[in-house]
Design goal:
Length: 294
Amino acid sequence: MITGDLTDAGRSAEWVEFFAALAAYPRIADLVIALPGNHDVNVVDRASPARMDLPTSPMKRLRQVRTISALGMLQGSRLHVVESSAGKLGDTLADALKWHGGDMAAFADKGSLRLSRSLAGLWATIFPMVMPPATDDGLGVIVLNSNAETHFSFTNALGLVSAEQARALAVAIRQYPRACWIVALHHHVIEYPKPAKALSERIGTALINGSWFIRRLQDLANHAVIMHGHRHIDWIGDCGGLLIVSAPSPVMEPIDCLETYFYVHTLAVGSDERLKLLAPERINVRGQPVANEE
């Protein structure tokens, strides 16, 4: 599960690097489920934090189209979109994108305003993506887009889950009432109840409507775990009967020569039919020695 920020600024070269790295591990690639982070779609210009994208600019749409294409390649055959009006899961992501492939390719080449408008609704309609459980009482995955619509680098990190996504999420839950779920999004839903000295740790960018979103998930209390990224903070807790797992970043802080780590999590259903998060397994990754420079 990659909870966003697969790239640093949504550039095409960064997506190429990501897929080149993943190609060396085909068995892992077949299991990867990913979602967009603010760096993939909302960072306007890494070199100029004050730069702004106009709402009519094709660049924001281009970053979205790149992300959609990447997610289609990664998980298009395994995850489904939701047909909220019909009250059921719809096509796989791959099938849903077949109708838009020509427009997406043409927009990537030309960046025209007309094509940008024709693709405006696609970004909203493909979320949430759902991997249904293999059995009625199995484990499913719901992938959300929690990036707020911003066009300014200073506000690129804001998070919001739309009411439309929440309604579509409820459709998936109703279809599998006995299932347990991983609900994955980029932004953290609550500020962590832990002491912190650094200002960046005390003032975060949790979901603007985090408390509202938690209330929308109450039907999943004791049957879901929320997994998110964004803050690069190692924290596990609960809120309203929902387990929450914050993914520490294995690459943000340490340089190549320093040790880093990640976790492998195991979920289980107890005799009380509640979803349990077992003790995580910490995997330490040793740093690579750096050759002395002459």
